[in-house]
Amino acid sequence: MVKRMIDSGVLDKLGMAASGLCGIHCLILPIVFVLFPYASVAFVKGEFFEWSFLLFSITIASFAMVQGLLVHRKLIPLAVALLGFMLFIWTRTVNHDVHETFSGSLMLVLAGALICGAHYLNHKFIKNHKCACSH
Question: Under a CB-based contact definition with an 8 Å cutoff, are residues 75 and 68 in contact?
Fold first, then answer.
């Protein structure tokens, strides 16, 4: 079943969507707090929410990147995903008020973009490999 999801690109598309949502979350959250300081969005800012979402993203990326590596034999997507996850974890552990600083939010957006890019590359490499093998 996981192999079919990899072949069809579902996991990479889900990973790109999750990474994109993460980036939007990191860009929008500081604006929401400035415009609506009393908005009840504490659950979105919470540690549990962010670390749970990160664990979900790592799980999807692990399946997608390893299966992709077995198909196309290129380490680039895996390396880019690892860089993105390391940047996210480093930023979150160093700066606890990460969403309240522009640089912290920017680093998280960059981490999300790297993870999204890794899924895109993985999907592209799988697709190109399948085209090359089918002829």
Answer: no
User: For residue 73, what pLDDT is reported?
Assistant: 93
For 61-76, what is the mean pLDDT? 91
CA angle, residues 26, 28, 30, in degrees to nearest 5: 80
* Full residue range of the structural domain in which residue 63 is found: 2-134
Look up residue 111 and give its two tokens: 């981490």
Beta carbons of 57 and 115 less than 8 angstroms apart: yes
Question: What does the alpha-carbon distance between residue 95 and residue 28 come to, in Å, rounded to a whole number?
Answer: 18
> Phi, psi at residue 39, to the nearest 5°?
-65, 145
Q: Which pairs with CB-CB distance under 8 Å and at least 24 residues apart come from 83-92? A: 83/114, 84/19, 84/111, 84/112, 84/113, 84/114, 84/115, 84/117, 84/118, 85/54, 85/57, 85/58, 85/61, 85/111, 85/115, 87/111, 87/114, 88/54, 88/112, 88/115, 89/54, 92/50, 92/51, 92/54
120 within 8 A of 26, measured Cβ to Cβ = no
Number of domains present in the structure of the chain:
1
pLDDT value at position 21? Answer: 79
